[in-house]
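Figure 6 in text form: structure in, sequence out.
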């Protein structure tokens, strides 16, 4: 009897000896059996009739995939995309034209992979990556499905040894590099940068989407003579007010923005009066800038119009990236789980609340009731133990009014009590550094067994005033729990 999708996934979770097993040898062997029709034995390379775009980076991958996917779809192309992890449904990982593929297609792909692997053991992630590639290739011969014109692959972990890197991209973007996943990628930015830059290919465009390029990445570009483009060096953005990344946003958000290449790139066109991305936060303009550079470089084979860009940026639906679920009070969900992402999230929170009405200091040493008329920020958080939890917490300690720390249902979770102790230590240290130290009010920091319990506690306290804001963040697991509870309630 054929397995259901849930049966396949349960089997995969227990099939491979370890959850994370970086390396390409196993995947290379299986994919050559799986997609032999696309493999050239003479050149020892795969040749596909669609363009391949690979996106890696510490933060910003999901937003970048969503923008690129939306613009290309609105331009009329058939777009395949692969991302991870999912939030509510495994099918979210594999999409064609922005729609998750069916259980049936995924199960068929798993069956083909299981036959092709023979005695080779594959991890849960490797099965999923191969399934996505198999489904995109199957679309080429499926009479009921338009063949993919372009495939966007998001790297799961690192880049060089990630299963996604089994395919050679036509263009590769590394969005950002920061400290995360040190157990697998290295303990400093230079080491991590080299792992992520493993997706770059000689004679193919390579992009770095941030201002602070690690030295190791710069040396790699020079050593391998890559066709390289960097944000803030080769292309830029400008808001309608003519300011840059450090713009002080007020209540009046810009309606449009502009994008332009450096003077040395005479063959690349600028873009004016671009619609703002339908993703909150001015930092999304940096992600959108990287996407426009990709589109300019792919223009000979995948041309898009100004209208396609505007329509695509105005029509993005991405769960868990500064996702506002409610407005009375606002409930904001974000998967931020490292220091860089936390700092970006804080900036977005400040923009959301308005610089003319900056977030009031949480005043943790005072009663919550006394801050009822202030713009107060409340947090529900759960995190994994392999993250730099204290650094993430420290980004928000001066602006949060109350903390609700939850247990996560995964072996990788950090216990809620341990997160609480780290938070108390941070607050105590900050209090001692002040000229007039005050005692930390522990009653504003509480632990709960799951999200539903924490949310119920917040709802009982909250009086639905417009000045109250609930931020939920810390992990994909946290957001999954939140979406499950909140969507059920709504």
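Output sequence:
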């Amino acid at each position: 009897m054929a397995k259901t999708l849930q049966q396949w996934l349960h089997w995969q979770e227990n099939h491979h000896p370890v959850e994370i097993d970086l390396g390409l040898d196993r995947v290379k062997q299986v994919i050559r059996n799986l997609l032999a029709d696309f493999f050239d034995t003479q050149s020892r390379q795969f040749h596909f009739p669609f363009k391949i775009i690979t996106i890696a980076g510490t933060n910003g991958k999901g937003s970048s995939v969503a923008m690129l996917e939306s613009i290309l779809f609105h331009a009329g192309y058939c777009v395949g995309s692969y991302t991870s992890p999912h939030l509510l449904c495994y099918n979210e990982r594999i999409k064609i034209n922005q729609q998750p593929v069916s259980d049936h297609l995924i199960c068929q792909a798993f069956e083909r992979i299981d036959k092709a692997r023979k005695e080779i053991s594959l991890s849960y992630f490797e099965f999923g990556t191969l399934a996505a590639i198999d489904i995109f290739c199957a679309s080429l011969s499926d009479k009921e499905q338009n063949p993919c014109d372009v495939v966007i692959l998001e790297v799961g972990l690192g880049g060089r040894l990630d299963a996604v890197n089994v395919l050679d991209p036509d263009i590769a973007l590394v969005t950002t590099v920061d400290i995360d996943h040190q157990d697998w990628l290295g303990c400093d930015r230079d080491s991590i940068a080299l792992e992520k830059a493993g997706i770059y290919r000689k004679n193919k465009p390579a992009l770095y989407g941030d201002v602070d390029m690690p030295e190791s990445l710069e040396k790699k570009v020079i050593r391998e003579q890559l066709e390289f483009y960097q944000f803030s060096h080769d292309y830029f953005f400008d808001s309608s007010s003519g300011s840059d990344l450090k713009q002080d946003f007020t209540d009046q958000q810009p309606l449009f923005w502009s994008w332009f290449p450096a003077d040395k790139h005479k063959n690349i066109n600028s873009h004016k009066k671009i619609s703002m991305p339908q993703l909150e936060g001015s930092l999304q303009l940096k992600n959108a800038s990287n996407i426009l550079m990709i589109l300019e470089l792919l223009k000979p084979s995948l041309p898009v119009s100004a209208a396609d860009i505007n329509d695509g940026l105005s029509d993005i639906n991405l769960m868990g990236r500064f996702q506002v679920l409610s407005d009375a009070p606002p409930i904001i969900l974000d998967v931020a789980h490292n220091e860089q992402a936390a700092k970006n999230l804080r900036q977005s929170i400040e923009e959301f609340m308005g610089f003319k009405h900056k977030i009031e200091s949480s005043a943790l040493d005072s009663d919550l009731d006394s801050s009822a008329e202030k713009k107060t920020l409340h947090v529900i958080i759960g995190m994994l133990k392999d993250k730099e939890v204290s650094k993430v917490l420290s980004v928000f300690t001066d602006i949060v009014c109350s903390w609700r720390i939850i247990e996560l249902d995964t072996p990788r979770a950090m216990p809620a009590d341990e997160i609480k102790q780290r938070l108390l230590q941070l607050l105590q240290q900050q209090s001692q550094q002040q000229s007039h130290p005050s005692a930390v009010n522990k009653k504003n920091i509480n632990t709960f067994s799951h999200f539903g319990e924490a949310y119920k506690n917040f709802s009982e306290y909250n009086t639905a005033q417009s000045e109250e804001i609930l931020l939920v963040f810390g992990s994909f697991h946290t957001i999954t729990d939140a979406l499950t509870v909140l969507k059920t309630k709504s």
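Caption detail: The chain is about 35% helix and 15% strand.
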